[in-house]
Specification:
The complex is a heterodimer.
Chain A lengths: L9 E12 L2 E8 L2 H6 L7 E6 L3 E6 L10 E6 L3 H7 L6 E8 L12 E7 L3 H12 L8 E7 L8 H9 L4 E6 L11 E2 L2 H8 L6 E6 L2 H13 L7 E4 L15 E2 L2 E2 H4 L2 E3 H5 L6
Parallel strand pairs in A: 7-8, 7-11, 8-9, 9-10, 11-12
Antiparallel strand pairs in A: 1-2, 1-6, 2-5, 3-4, 3-6, 12-15, 13-14
Chain B lengths: L3 E5 L1 H14 L1 E8 L2 E6 L25 E10 L2 E6 L8 E6 L1 H14 L6 H9 E6 L25 E5 L5 E5 L2 H8 L5 E3 L18 H10 L5 H5 L8 H5 L6 E8 L2 E8 L20 H20 L9 H5 L6 H9 L9
Parallel strand pairs in B: 2-6, 6-7, 7-8
Antiparallel strand pairs in B: 1-9, 1-10, 2-3, 4-5, 4-12, 8-9, 11-12
Helix pairs in contact in B: 5-8
Classes of the chains: A alpha/beta, B alpha+beta.
The complex binds flavin-adenine dinucleotide, iron/sulfur cluster (2 copies) and FE2/S2 (inorganic) cluster.
Chain lengths: 279, 344
Amino acid sequence: MNKNNIYLPYQMKISKITQEAPGVKTFRLEFLNSGEGELFSFKTGQFGEYSVYGEGESTFCIASPHTRKGYIECTFRQVGRVTTALANQEEGAVIGFRGPYGNVFPIDDWKGKDLIFIAGGIALPPMRSVIWSCLDTRNHFKDITVFYGARTVNDLVYKQELEEWGNRSDVNLHLTVDPGGETPEWKGEVGFVPSVVENVAPSSIDAIVIVCGPPVMIKNTFPVLKKLGFEDKNIYTTLENRMKCGFGKCGRCNVGKTFVCKDGPVFTAEQLADMPGEY
Amino acid sequence: MNHQFKLLRKESYSGLIGNLLKSQQVYGPVKQEGYTYYKRISYPDEITEDYIIPQMSAKSFVFPKIEKLFSFVKSKDGVRVEDKNLDTIPKKVIFGVRPCDATGIHNLSAIFLWEPEDSIFKKRREQTTIISFACSSADDYCFCTSLGGGPGNTAGSDIQLIKTGTNDYLAEIITPKGAEIVSSNPGLFEDVDSVEKEKYLVRLPVCFDDSELEDKITDAFDTAIFDDLSMKCVGCGACAFICPVCGCFDIQDETKGSMGQRVRIWDSCGLRQFTLHTSGHNPRDTQGARYRQRLMHKFSYMPDRLGVKGCVGCGRCSRACPVEINIHENLQQITKLVKIHKHE
Ligand SMILES: Cc1cc2nc3c(=O)[nH]c(=O)nc-3n(C[C@H](O)[C@H](O)[C@H](O)COP(=O)(O)OP(=O)(O)OC[C@H]3O[C@@H](n4cnc5c(N)ncnc54)[C@H](O)[C@@H]3O)c2cc1C
Ligand code: SF4
Ligand code: SF4
Ligand code: FES
């Protein structure tokens, strides 16, 4: 982050654009000033403010793993003003980025454990960062299981990476689409994420679970995890309250006295249980 | 705290303002159509002493309504971004700031200097000297004393002037910046031996127990009291704009042709859009939830996280509210609540 002016973004060149799903794109961003790029570092779980000059800023997590240097990636869904302006950019264009902000997934504390990732819809980006960070240091962990669901087959993001994970013998991948969202060729499961998790019933012994998704999915997944014996302190998720500054000043992202931008966005279910439900 | 006191005779008072006008911008309470505002002055006698409290607080000196963060120029070759030049922020001395407004700036600093430091705010704060006027009168809306402040409170002030019975001023020197003004105006400030500041100050009763407020309001989160108190609230945001400590802001881009700037602009937690997601989901989706945020932020979250309150008891929000929601009455009601449950 720029120490002299905390609002001043880095200039980033879009070096690659991937259309992930309808309305969803991934940008690979490289620092225009390579000196800034070398000094930049982040940890998986953190986010930033991405901007098109003249349109404004938008909050996305950093979707690339911290184990890969020289660039960052973000995946976003086109929903409003800034995300539309971003979606209209072409490779080579320059956009603003400031960050990294927020806390991190404590992956160093997860060494020697089973990891279970559960993601729904567009919530795969924060998860993708942590999944790759863990896969890049694969021997630190025991079993790695990924559950990922979207409304339809077309809405699944990171299709290429899903295929890559599916082909790896050291990853258990369970893909699912909502009933009615399947195609004739679909080989994955059909059903909502929480029920797929319940059917597969991963062991909660010495295991960490990371859940990211829309509020309904999270709400319905927590009871399933409880039933499977997971303790609240071993369940991680991220919150997405509306943000502007990213560093505890603009006053809009707080849940009670907790600032999602500064104290989060990563929280355990144990922490959430102690916070008011303002998210 | 033991501050040094000097005597500033009424004949020297104008001389002091005149001297300051030679070296920097001077602002002070000025009457305009019956109301008082902190305004830039060119002559010492523009400053009025006939006011309880100016309409708007003094926060805009350090936290302007619209603050340029940086500018940019767009062309077909791309964007050129130009950082803000902090050296263009001028030195200002503000006369006649009420003690509550000076305290407001002090408390607001806690937000902006919280890591990571906001260098724009910091620079404005450094460039601003505050010469407060202690209060010899108050109105029904003032309640600074109930929050640990008072008509002679010195937080945020560099010098405080207290009018004496002979229409001279006691000058309480609070900071090195204040001492600098005294030393660079030789002959204007005289030594005094005995100081009885208190006897020149208005007496304002303490109406509730401040020490219980944080616990009581924190415990009341899940009760219906905030819905009850804000039943009439229309969500206009006036209370936030007028408040010396409300620091919440939006960040927006403003453009004119190929030129533009990113700005930080006052915002309010009372507005529905403040926390609204694009999906339509809103974590604080009732006016009650938003009023709760307003009070909790000021009396629970800020004390907990930053060690200062988000309210100084100036009463402006009550004076301005179109539906007469009165924060002083609200706080008295909250401190009367019986403890419902205890947080571990
Ligand atoms: C920590 C965090 C991580 C996020 N990560 C991603 C991600 O990886 N990919 C992705 O597609 N989306 C992500 N989001 C949501 C994303 O920020 C919004 O969808 C986006 O800002 C909408 O901007 P807009 O200008 O296009 O929409 P508009 O409706 O035009 O924007 C209005 C304003 O509301 C704010 N806003 C609206 N909805 C949200 C929301 N849900 N969360 C935060 N701010 C919002 C925007 O900042 C904007 O200033 C994340 C949000 C947070 C808080
Ligand atoms: S009384 Fe109202 S306007 Fe004055 S400091 Fe408190 S909240 Fe702000
Ligand atoms: S001024 Fe009154 S009506 Fe307007 S937002 Fe504040 S409390 Fe509500
Ligand atoms: S995003 Fe501004 S306070 Fe959290």
